[in-house]
Amino acid sequence: MKSISSKNWSIDRAAELYGIREWSSGYFDVNEKGEMVCSLSFSEESKPLKKSSKKGAVEVPESLLATSETKVNVSLVDIISGMKERGMEMPVLLRFENLIEDRLTKLNEAFGNAIKASGYKNYYRGVFPIKVNQQAQVIEEISEFGSRYHHGLEAGSKAELIIALASLTDNDACIVCNGYKDDEFISLGLHAIQLGINCFFVVETLSEIPLIIAASKKMNVKPLIGVRLKLASKVDGYWSSDSGDRSIFGLTTSQLMEAVDQLRAADMIDCLQLLHCHLGSQIPNIQNIRSGVLEACRYYSELRNEGVPLGYLDLGGGLAVDYEGAYTNSTHSMNYNLDEYCADIVEAIIETLDPLGIEHPVILTESGRATVAYSSVLLFNILDVTHFEPAPIPKELEDDASELVKNMHAVLDIITVRNVQECFNDASHYRDEIRENFRRGRETLRSKALGENIYLAILQKIVVLLPQVKRISTELENLPESLADIYYGNFSVFQSLPDSWAIDQIFPIMPIHRLDEVPTRDAILADLTCDCDGKIDSFTVDGLHRKTLPVHDVKEGEDYFFGAFLVGAYQETLGDLHNLFGDTNVVSVRVNSDGSYDYVKEMEGDSISDVLSYVEYYPKALTERFRQRAEKAVKSGHINVAERQTMLKNFSESLGGYTYFEK
Fold it and tell me: Is the pLDDT confidence value at 248 over 80?
């Protein structure tokens, strides 16, 4: 990667380099001190939203719409200082409650605006898929903040349904039950209906229909039923192979008709009120969404012609997050905004159903990623750095140096812009010969070390000259990446950023301070795990994919903090215990309109004792076994009793300690 000029460096240039204003949707920026800030807008008047008399609709007072806004910026570095004072060390998952509230508001109001602008004759209902982030704090916030919009929950398992039943207090909100269902799952959902909750059973396979019919008759509760379709429409992006005919979930056309016939035979066709389809997660192309909605509406209209009293159309998830800030249809980006997404859905439904005289359905979507991704930031510090730079090389070598090392040394002195490729080829040849001779016992260890050091000096000299070279081979083009620093971060990729490892997800990752300084180094990030996959080497820099990230020199005695952004969706629950690194500390803050902020919740991360118990090691038993081992050492004379006591004390304290690096 070419060096970054310091001539015109500014915080605006820093924001451009790391793409902050592109991927953050306005929620993050850089302040004049070069620190990352969470940026929020507050209305000067704070009037509550009011419900209209019409069930399901939400009105926003005109006075509230007309108010001016005040922008508040809160420094992440200041938040870290407050966390440290409260005993919360790195790494920390930082949640902003305001961002969950704002995302819910924007989603619901964007649909509300699209409905109003197009004359759509029904309303919108959002449901949050619990699987996207099952953490109690998150679900509590969604249930509380979403109640003003009757925002519900989607459950894909019995455990998630229990969460939904215990969390939702608004009977105008919906619970959508996806996934495979047994008798217990169905009974729980029927209890929800008894409580007055709109709880829909979405049929994934035909085998579920007899179970629903039997349970509803046994409990004498009329169910709300939906059917999930396999649409032919395909989507772009990572999940393209799961869409279309090869979709794992849903009914084929023939199975759909059989489901209708079974319900009609059971005199329960009036229970079939919802049509569900899900194109896939993180859909980057708006054309895919529009195509899928149009196809779903054709099924909806045909089922209505069959006499099925549908009233709800659930279009599933897929609303993307622009992790790259590129505004394209690449896998980790999106070529549309929220308003366009909502308008296209509403218009596609009107376009299909109006000519047929079919009433507009209640629109449901299951946006999870776009609701919570922005709200969480993984904060971590850099513990160590490996530089690939040569040690000082003597101007003249000793007479007894090997001929290959002398040849390598000679190359170092003749490198120019015109001969960089030739010098690279020669140096690589000599390096390989030295290694082969070492394997055969013809080169000493010191000689090999000297040769490797000279080779590294040659590569570094070539990298400096590359910007002046007109034609660069692939080998030389990739040379800067192979010489990039390794910055060791206090975190686990597998625990906190599993999608980075599993599906090559690109997250915005960057230093969160010193952004008023020019980054002079290029680096990849390595985590604490003993695994070669425990690294991050894919970034978006200046709008392009890069294998390295521009960073600053780590100063002796000073912390250097990084943030991994947009990690609120999927990462917490998918994380695993590789090397027994557990959950990180979690801090939730709420920003106030005057610029202050409250530490609303603090949760300590897993202790060593916690993670050991997850894999069936029990602290008391471990302590006793270690005590016995120490006692034997006393008897054999290896240690004395005082040393034994110190060991037992340290062992016990370690069990209660944080799994990550502690100062």
Answer: no
